């Protein structure tokens, strides 16, 4: 469940980074990319600072809110540029971007493991379910 969510986040972030890095054709994706990247980095930062179940639940809920806000824009971009959904067609100049997103995914996985001790908390589970629903709305299956 957590592994799939991390994977989905990395894929969406990579798609958005691809759109941004390709230049003029994808200028309209820059705004969405920035929002998604900022939200993901903020989420990881909050998880890094979390010292209680409440902190973890708050971080997850904040991230879910961000994803819910970004989803309509992300869907429009994904529909407009379906060619970017295929990770096998990443241009060479975007390899650095893929590495960056892999690192973000690793950081997220590390933080989720660090905070796994709070996953039995009812509020954390509730927040996790909310985030899963928000991620599923992006079109993936967490």
Labels describing this entry:
single chain, 142 residues, mainly alpha, 0% strand
Describe the protein.
By secondary structure, the chain is mainly alpha-helical. The chain has one domain. Helices cover 75% and strands 0% of the residues.
Helix content: over 70%
Which of globular, elongated, flat, extended, rod-shaped describes the shape? globular
**Cα-to-Cα separation, first versus last residue:** 6 Å
Overall residue-averaged pLDDT value: 77
**Poorly predicted regions:** 90-94
Beta fraction: under 5%
What count of helical segments does DSSP give?
5
H/E series, N to C? HHHHH
Write the layout of secondary structure elements.
Blueprint (H helix, E strand, L loop, with lengths): L1 H20 L5 H23 L3 H28 L14 H20 L7 H15 L6
Helix pairs in contact: 1-2, 1-4, 2-3, 2-4, 3-5
Short recap of the structure:
With 142 residues, the chain is mainly alpha-helical.
